[in-house]
Amino acid sequence: MLVISVSVGLAACSGSSITENIETPSLQMSAEGPLYGGANSATATWEFNLKEILASEAGDISEAKITSVQVTLKASDNLPALEKMVFEVTSKNTSMTRIGLYEGAIVKGQVFDLNIASEQENLASAFSDGKMTFVGDFDLTDEEYPGNIEFILKVKFAVTRK
């Protein structure tokens, strides 16, 4: 199932709006090696059927924002030292949008939460596309690493419909 949790509530602004909290399943976000010192990118794609992930049938999506991003570096032999991550999202009809930032060491096996931008672009059009691509730009502090680096990613959204 694409959605792990869905809850329905009333939006504060309008009695006719419905806000649903949607969470992606655990996604694998990968950076293919060889990787070099400095900035590198890992990507994950989420494909979904909008009718299946929404709890109610009311109206079109008028607003969608990311409320939480959790990332875990998957354990692997001889992983290099990693730090910082800038997180972005894009889709067919949505330009690359910066969503969050993590500053600090990235430790294998530990979940880290990104600091989500308080001001972010409305992602409603990305939901109509049925597919989103997430990009995590992280820093490799070693000179190079020949293998792939994999993360587990979970993203939560607040989606408002009228």
Low-confidence segments, ≥5 residues, pLDDT <50?
1-14
Which architecture name does CATH use?
Sandwich
Principal-axis shape: elongated
CATH top level class name: Mainly Beta
Our estimate of the beta-strand percent is over 45%
Would you give the CATH topology?
A: Jelly Rolls
Mean pLDDT: 89
Structural overview:
This protein is 6% helix and 60% strand. With 162 residues, it is mostly beta strands. The protein has a single domain, classed as Jelly Rolls. Strands 1, 2, 3, 5, 8 and 11 form a six-stranded antiparallel β-sheet that branches. A five-stranded antiparallel β-sheet has the order 4-10-6-7-9. The relative contact order is 0.35.
List descriptors.
162 residues; mainly beta; Jelly Rolls; 6-stranded antiparallel sheet; 5-stranded antiparallel sheet; 11 strands; elongated; disordered N terminus
Show the helix and strand layout.
Blueprint (H helix, E strand, L loop, with lengths): L5 E5 L7 E6 L3 E5 L3 E13 L2 H4 L7 E13 L8 E10 L2 E13 L4 E3 L1 E2 L7 H6 L1 E15 L3 E13 L1
Antiparallel strand pairs: 1-2, 2-11, 3-11, 4-10, 5-8, 5-11, 6-7, 6-10, 7-9
What does this entry show, briefly?
The chain is mainly β and 162 residues long. It has two helices and eleven strands; from the N terminus they run E-E-E-E-H-E-E-E-E-E-H-E-E.
